[in-house]
Automatic annotation (TrEMBL):
Protein name in the entry: Uncharacterized protein
Source organism, top-level taxon: Bacteria
Organism taxonomic ancestry: Bacteria, Pseudomonadati, Pseudomonadota, Alphaproteobacteria, Hyphomicrobiales
Length: 179
């Protein structure tokens, strides 16, 4: 059942409890596998943008994962912080992060292309309708768009676009505390 663009959690095909532990939503296996491959990469950069209604993108936050270390900074700052983002999990404290996944389409140009999924993203207390694009060459996440019901919760804007890159030559270890 659709409710303002979101799936009613009582009717969604999401993970079930198994001995008081939530399991992944089986419809989201490809999405969860892509996120697993993304966060297992030796170098990953992700920029979260404020995706404005006019189509413009304003950088909001940048995350870099280099080996076992993760760093983050807001766009308005020059200061990087070492963080413990915990980005590899597919199940949060209240259940699966990705729910009710469904294939929207694919775009292939030879061996390269993307597969586009729709889903519900949940990370308590937040929830958003989401689009996920997975590259077919390496089965990693290319971008994620999350549409929140309002702009006063997770971000100071309603639509967040996360864009991932994997170019080791471009993803440098940032300076943290002068080092």
């Amino acid at each position: 059942m659709q409710n303002g663009g979101l799936v009613d959690s009582s009717q969604a095909a999401h993970g079930q409890r198994n001995n008081d532990v939530f399991e992944e939503d089986i419809s989201c296996k490809r999405v969860n596998d892509a996120f697993g491959a993304t966060w297992r990469s030796s170098r990953v950069a992700m920029i979260t943008f404020n995706a404005k209604p006019d189509g413009t993108l304003k950088p909001h936050y940048e995350l870099r994962k280099i080996g076992d270390h993760e760093y983050g900074k807001y766009a308005f700052s020059t200061k990087w912080l070492r963080i413990g983002y915990g980005s590899a999990g597919s199940v949060g404290q209240r259940g699966p992060i990705w729910n009710a996944c469904h294939l929207i389409g694919s775009d292939h140009d030879g061996d390269e292309g993307e597969i586009h999924y729709g889903a519900i993203w949940r990370s308590f207390p937040y929830e958003a309708a989401a689009d996920i694009w997975i590259t077919t060459g390496d089965d990693r996440v290319h971008k994620v768009r999350r549409q929140f019901q309002d702009d006063r919760w997770k971000f100071p804007f309603a639509t967040a676009l996360d864009v991932f890159s994997y170019d080791s030559a471009q993803i440098e270890v940032p300076y943290v505390d002068g080092r």
